[in-house]
Hints:
The protein is an alpha+beta fold. The protein folds into two domains: about 60 residues; about 210 residues, Glucose Permease (Domain IIA), CATH 2.70.70. Helix content is about 30%, strand content about 20%. It contains five helices and 13 strands. The strands form three sheets. Strands 2, 3, 5, 6, 7, 8, 10, 11 and 13 form a nine-stranded antiparallel beta sheet that branches. It has a two-stranded parallel ribbon with strand order 1-12. Strand 6 and strand 7 form a beta hairpin. The longest helix has about 35 residues. It is globular. It starts with a helix and ends in an 8-residue tail after the last strand.
Amino acid sequence: MGPGTAKRRARKLGMLGFRFLLVAFFALVAAAVIFDLSHPWWWNLAPLLLAFVLVTVLNRTGGAPDSTRAAREPVEVAPPVTGRWSALNSPADRTPSHGTHAYGQTFAIDIVAEPEPGARPGFRVLWPLVRRSSDFPAFGAPLLAVADGTVVRVEDGRRDHLSRTSLPALLYLMLVEGDLRQLGGVRRIVGNHVVLDLGDGVHALYAHVQRGSFTVREGDRVRAGQPIARCGNSGNSSEPHVHFQLMDGPDPDTARGLPFTWRGLGVPRNGEVFRADDPASAPA
Length: 284
């Protein structure tokens, strides 16, 4: 077993330990309430504190990119969408872009469809609490292969839920739903997703995919620009959007993030509106 395999196994065990400690915390709290246990109050917090320490260690060491990977030039790929979009949580503004190296997200980016100004429903403080996924122009948008590659992972079956674009719904996502999804593992976090092996140790992950929209299966070869699925709102998502990242392995639980650049666009900054051309319309 090589050193790379050993490190991946250690990160996998670390993530499993983190989830076990979260379960232990909730179990102790429930037991204390139901059975009126008399042990010290801090005893209930011990698993939560250990989980925090463990995930901090994984985030700073095991989840961070190797120096050789972090120093490599960004991998140039085509954009995963066409049309007019804007960027959120961009690695052009900070890394890790989502505040964590976990799940290979160091250089991940979120993008939302903006076909025209005002087409995307905005955030509301109280009402409406939630919106249907179909209210957002990103929902159902085609997702394209960013390069030639092989489909190595397809996860379907998670429902496309309502938006979390009001203050109460967002607090629910951050304080309740997000923690519960952590307990369920990476599939609950990224929702329906597909991973492409692009060669040379580079893998592309598309998360929060629309349920039932996949046009590829594991083992299929794909060409750059080929439609592979549609944008959805599954997993730990506040609204329909595309979450895209490059990783050094197919399993987000153990992979490390890799930097990318989109051909002709670079890496859009937070709030930057960009337009990705249809590859079919590009000159030969």
